[in-house]
C-alpha cells in the first residue's frame, strides 16, 4: 500500500483529505506544519509527499529542498497562490505536480495515482545502470565490474540498487534499514555496516564509491 505524507496546516482540510485518501487505498501521515513534515519524512519512508506551499515554521518550498537533498520521492504541491513564478520555483525544486485550492477530492486522488504510476514507470524504464566500469542490470539482477561478473546475495543487490537510486545523497542507517530490512526489523543497525563492508569487497575497484559520512551514514559517489 502506498504511504503518503500530507503536510497541510488547515486542520479541517487535512482531516478531510486524509479520510478521502484513506478511503481510496492510501496510508496517510498528516503534519500540521513544515517542521513536523520534515521530521516525519526523516523517520519514515513515503511513496508520495503532498506539501502545502504556505505553512508555518517551514514552507513547502523549503521542505521540498530538504527532501530533494535526500531522496527522489514524488512531490505534489497544494497552493492557493497561482503566480507563475511560484509554480516555476516549485518545478525547479523538483515538484511533480501542482494542485490549486480549492480542488476536487476525486481530482486529488487521480493526480496522486498518476504521479505514482509515472514514478513506477521511470523506475522500470531504467533497466541498466552503467558507469565507470560498474554495470548493473536491474531486470536480470546481474552485476559486473570492469566486465567481470560479481556474485551478490539478494539483500546486497537490493542495497546496491538503493544506493544507485539515491546517488550523491547521504543515507542514514535508519533509512537503509527501513528500505532494505523493513519497518518491522528490530535488530541492531550495525547489520547495515556489515553488509556495506561485504558489498564494498564484492564490488572490488568500485567498492570505494560507497563512502562513509561520519555520524550521518553512507553515500554512493
| Structural domain count | 2
The overall average pLDDT, rounded, is 85
Structural shape: elongated
Cα end-to-end separation: 31 Å
CATH H-tier superfamily of the largest domain: Response regulator
- Provide the gyration radius in Å: 19 Å
Task: Provide the CATH topology of the largest domain.
Answer: Rossmann fold
Please give the order of strands in the largest beta sheet: 2-1-3-4-5
Summed up, the helix count is 8
Spans with pLDDT under 50 lasting ≥5 residues? none
DSSP strand (E) fraction? 15-25%
The succession of helices and strands, N to C, reads EHEHEHEHEHEEEEHHHEE
Report the structural category: alpha/beta
Second-tier CATH architecture of the largest domain:
3-Layer(aba) Sandwich
Helix content: 40-55%
Amino acid at each position: 500500500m502506498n504511504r503518503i505524507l500530507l503536510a497541510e496546516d488547515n486542520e479541517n482540510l487535512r482531516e478531510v483529505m486524509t479520510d478521502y485518501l484513506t478511503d481510496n487505498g492510501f496510508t496517510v501521515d498528516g503534519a500540521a506544519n513544515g517542521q513536523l513534515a520534515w521530521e516525519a519524512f526523516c523517520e519514515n519512508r513515503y511513496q508520495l509527499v503532498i506539501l502545502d506551499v504556505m505553512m508555518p515554521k517551514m514552507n513547502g518550498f523549503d521542505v521540498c529542498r530538504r527532501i530533494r537533498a535526500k531522496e527522489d520521492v514524488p512531490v505534489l504541491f497544494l497552493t492557493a497562490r497561482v503566480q507563475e513564478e511560484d509554480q516555476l520555483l516549485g518545478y525547479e525544486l523538483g515538484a511533480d505536480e501542482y494542485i490549486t485550492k480549492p480542488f476536487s477530492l476525486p481530482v486529488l486522488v487521480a493526480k496522486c495515482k498518476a504521479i505514482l504510476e509515472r514514478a513506477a514507470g521511470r523506475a522500470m524504464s531504467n533497466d541498466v545502470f552503467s558507469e565507470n566500469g560498474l554495470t548493473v542490470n536491474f531486470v536480470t539482477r546481474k552485476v559486473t565490474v570492469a566486465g567481470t561478473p560479481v556474485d551478490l546475495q539478494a539483500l546486497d543487490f537490493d542495497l546496491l540498487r538503493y544506493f544507485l537510486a539515491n546517488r550523491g545523497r547521504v543515507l542514514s542507517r535508519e533509512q537503509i534499514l527501513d528500505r532494505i530490512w523493513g519497518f518491522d526489523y528490530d535488530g541492531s543497525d550495525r547489520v547495515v555496516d556489515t553488509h556495506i563492508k561485504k558489498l564494498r569487497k564484492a564490488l572490488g575497484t568500485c567498492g570505494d564509491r560507497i563512502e562513509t559520512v561520519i555520524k550521518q551514514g553512507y553515500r554512493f559517489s
